[in-house]
Amino acid sequence: MISANMFIRCNSRRFMPSQVDEEAHQLSYLQKHMANILTLLADSVDGEGDDSMVLTMETFEHLGFLMHFSEGTPLSQAASFFANSDPDMPAAPVPAALVHDWILQHIASTLEFMAEKSSAKENSLQNASDPDVTMSDAVTNTRIHSSSPTGTSAPNNPGYYRNTTFVEGFSRTSVVKQASDMKGHSIKVLNCHDSVIYILAPLKYATVYGSSDTTIVLGAIGKVVKVEHCERVQIIAASKRICIANCRECTFYLGVNHQPLIVGDNHKLQVAPFNTYYPQLGEHLAQVGVDPNVNKWDQPFVLGVVDPHDSLSHPAGVSDVQAESATCLDPDLFTNFLIPSWFEPQGPTKYNPFTLPEVYWASQRKKHASLEDIQKNIRELEIDDNRKKELACALHAQFKDWLYASGNIRQLYCLQGE
């Protein structure tokens, strides 16, 4: 549940929905747009009406990016028309209309169940600090739940929380999670503020939700990273995919094998190439199947429009408009991010495994040359000890001002061993 002090800290933010509200909202979005989504995926065949568009099992699996039944179970195995197919004999395509009806039926039943569960919770005398009802309460293995862009829900099975690592509610601190700290293959970073968070481990899924003024490093994510309802965060992620929803003034330093997906109500997003490394990064990328030779960071794909009737993401009275995309970060503003070496002291990775585009390389060379010139001029200055102390104090003051202005003061605390 979102705490009161969160609203005080983020008074510039419009109402932020709870995770269960956002789950219901995203399921409603899928309900509204599923026909168009299936039209994009379907193949045309000879026939009339509803039978002229079909989906193969392989194409149907693409919907797993938007929804799933239980982690680790292929979506096709949850659908009666593809379940138990012979692996040596490709399953016959099925009409898109049949798939559409099946999905809508499960979305409707899940939304109804969520509403009943939420109503029961409101009428109970549970402690106010209890967590919101999530999709893990609302679904069973035979009910569908949204996987994008919220992804904060879970299958209704007791092992879920034992198999997911949570980093939640941190403020003005540094957090480090390495492979030995992980439970299962998922990480969820929830409601963190003014912090630096290092996730230096090979994982399948990562979710960042409701955070602000925070830098988050996601070392190697084999399936998808989801970032939702965040403000002024810097996400540094090496992943196969990333989905961004309802974020403001965020910068994403990406090494991604597929186009970044942007949905919902976003404003002033920036994307840039991946900008860091740690000694085990190359091994972690190989373990989860992320190819550092393929990086589509600069090809964001915007899905859908902003709905004026959606009270969670847009003020009323505004016509449907295309959801806002992201712009590429100015190369002059691009900097490498240093991960303290003692987090992962040994490993073969000595540099960023993702190739930096030439325009960003040129900017880095220019900055290095300027720095060398400054260092040379300072060394050659013929001044007495008192003037040297004055110069050092001036440089330190300017550096401190830059740390605060850029938000890097938190990482400095981390480097000092906080």
Automatic annotation (TrEMBL):
Residue ranges constituting the C-CAP/cofactor C-like domain according to the UniProt record: 149-290
Subcellular location: Cytoplasm, Cytoskeleton, Microtubule organizing center, Centrosome; Cytoplasm, Cytoskeleton, Spindle pole
Presence of the UniProt keyword Disulfide bond in the record: no
Top-level taxon: Eukaryota
Keywords: Cytoplasm, Cytoskeleton
Gene Ontology cellular component list: spindle pole
Gene3D superfamilies: 2.160.20.70
The family this protein is said to belong to: Belongs to the TBCC family.
InterPro entries xref list: C-CAP_CF_C-like (IPR017901), CAP/MinC_C (IPR016098), CAP_C_sf (IPR036223), CARP_motif (IPR006599), TBCC1 (IPR039589), Tubulin-bd_cofactor_C_dom (IPR012945)
Protein name as it appears in the record: TBCC domain-containing protein 1
